[in-house]
Amino acid sequence: MPRAWVLGDDIDTDALAPGRFMHRPVEELAANTLADIRPDFANAQPGDVIVAGRNFGAGSSREQAAQALVIRGIAGVVARSFAGIFYRNAINLGLPVLVGNPAVEDGAEVTLDIDNATLRHEAGETGLEPIPGFLLDMVHDGGLVPHLEKKFRGKA
Asked: What local confidence, expressed as pLDDT, does residue 156 receive?
């Protein structure tokens, strides 16, 4: 069962994609996501969900911050708010990002339903702000490039 990784406010792109790994293969960068603030995140499993506070993804515009979470198989990020560039990079890479403030304990079993904008957890279910339909289509297609390839496939 997927679990929640609860983080605080202002999680920046330097924590998500540590600079010292930027020159390394992206898989190594992904393996070290959040290593400086949550070393136990190395145990995150595909399908797990990050639940954070305000301003998730603050800092630089490095898209590797969202890419690392995609490579790790994170099902999505639920946060009270997102840095604008991170939000768009996440959508462009097919990573679901939803605004909300669920009362979830770290390590709790969770299920993220991006189509219905809900996070199910031990205490019940929390409604989230839905991803706009045209962006949700992009997420379902795996991001911007696959979405455009699908959309324009066969057109001259």
From this structure: 44
Closest CA to 105 of 16, 9, 1, 7: 7
The per-residue pLDDT for range 68-77, each reduced to its tens digit, is 999 999 999 9
E-only strand ranges, the chain:
4-6, 49-52, 76-79, 97-99, 110-113, 118-121, 124-127
Q: Find the CATH number of the domain harbouring 24.
A: 3.20.19.10
pLDDT at site 154: 56
The answer to pTM > 0.85 is: yes
Give the up-direction half-sphere exposure of residue 7: CA atoms within 13 A in the CB hemisphere: 29
SS3 state of residue 38: coil
Q: Total domain count for the chain?
A: 1
